[in-house]
């Protein structure tokens, strides 16, 4: 390829998993040039888990600061031309990096790559297979190329990302210069729900991206990771998109896309609160949704929520 690839990985209390994750990274058909780990103040026996790999990784340590700051620290200490992200409990197929190299050779103008993936709670279906009808066609710059292994995405691909979030951190590889150009990870989001979405959305608004329809990553879902809670993640995404819009962190042309998505996400959040019995929260979020953006059934749900939340307080 002629350019170097660094893996950047935040770590917090993943001694049970990280050995398997690193085995997958070091068993790539195309090897990476560097692996940088940032320990976010782990309290488990991380040192013992890392002992077999200590001469093959760069280990940084910080006080517990949240995943975004740990990821930021790892990225900004990495020396590679390209940064491959991997969470400390996810697994790459052996040809994950090889596929990236082939995708970049196919589309040398690209500065961001993401692969399809599977999740441990639904291993029989890929993420792209769960997408709404027509999503892949809308994502593709050349819809006639949908059957190809590597697909050049529309520029920007933010709209497709917001319609269906299929670009996860452990599947993401990008030029370090792209990361620098968008201002890197913002430390203040580090403990927000879905904090990684802040970086991904900003990249999607600027990057020339290529994707791979083959699933080469397994995302491990278990009770103590953030991605297991739909409502709290959606709350985080609303906060993140609101921040990106308020701070003007994307080009002007993307701000309307984000504004419309915030309305849609708030509507989804209202309905999620209602169906989960969180009637007070449903009433509160409805106050942040402009008149006309809820349908008739939603107003019936709002009335019901208001009555029940008032009754519970009395």
From TrEMBL:
Pfam families: Glycos_transf_2. It comes from the Bacteria. This is Glycosyltransferase family 2 protein. It comes from Marinobacter lacisalsi. The lineage of its organism: Bacteria, Pseudomonadati, Pseudomonadota, Gammaproteobacteria, Pseudomonadales. Residues 6-132 form the Glycosyltransferase 2-like domain. InterPro entries: Glyco_trans_2-like, Glycosyltransf_2, Nucleotide-diphossugar_trans.
């Amino acid at each position: 390829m002629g350019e170097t690839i660094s893996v950047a990985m935040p770590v917090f209390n993943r001694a049970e998993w990280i050995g398997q994750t690193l085995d997958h990274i070091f068993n790539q058909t195309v090897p990476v040039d560097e692996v940088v780990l940032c320990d976010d103040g782990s309290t488990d026996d991380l040192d013992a888990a890392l002992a077999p790999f200590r001469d093959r990784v760069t280990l940084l340590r910080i006080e517990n600061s949240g995943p975004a700051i740990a990821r930021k620290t790892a990225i900004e200490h990495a020396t590679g031309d390209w940064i491959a992200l991997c969470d400390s409990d996810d697994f790459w197929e052996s040809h994950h990096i090889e596929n990236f190299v082939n995708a970049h050779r196919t589309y040398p103008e690209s500065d961001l790559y993401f692969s399809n993936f599977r999740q441990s709670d639904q291993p029989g279906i890929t993420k792209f297979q769960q997408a709404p009808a027509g999503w892949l066609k809308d994502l593709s710059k050349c819809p006639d190329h949908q059957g190809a292994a590597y697909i050049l995405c529309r520029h920007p691909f933010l709209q497709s990302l917001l319609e269906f979030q299929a670009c996860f951190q452990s599947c993401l590889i990008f030029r370090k210069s792209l990361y620098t150009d968008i201002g890197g990870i913002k430390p203040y989001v580090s403990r927000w729900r879905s904090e990684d979405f802040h970086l991904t959305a900003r990249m999607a608004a600027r990057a020339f991206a290529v994707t791979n329809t083959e699933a080469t990553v397994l995302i491990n879902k278990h009770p103590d990771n953030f991605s297991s809670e739909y409502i709290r993640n959606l709350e985080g995404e609303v906060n993140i998109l609101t921040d990106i819009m308020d701070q003007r962190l994307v080009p002007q042309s993307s701000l309307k896309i984000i504004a419309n998505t915030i309305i849609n996400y708030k509507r989804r959040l209202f309905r999620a609160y209602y169906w989960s019995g969180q009637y007070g929260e449903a009433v509160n979020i409805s106050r942040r949704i402009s008149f006309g953006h809820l349908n008739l059934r939603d107003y019936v749900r709002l009335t019901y929520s208001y009555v029940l939340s008032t009754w519970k307080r009395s």
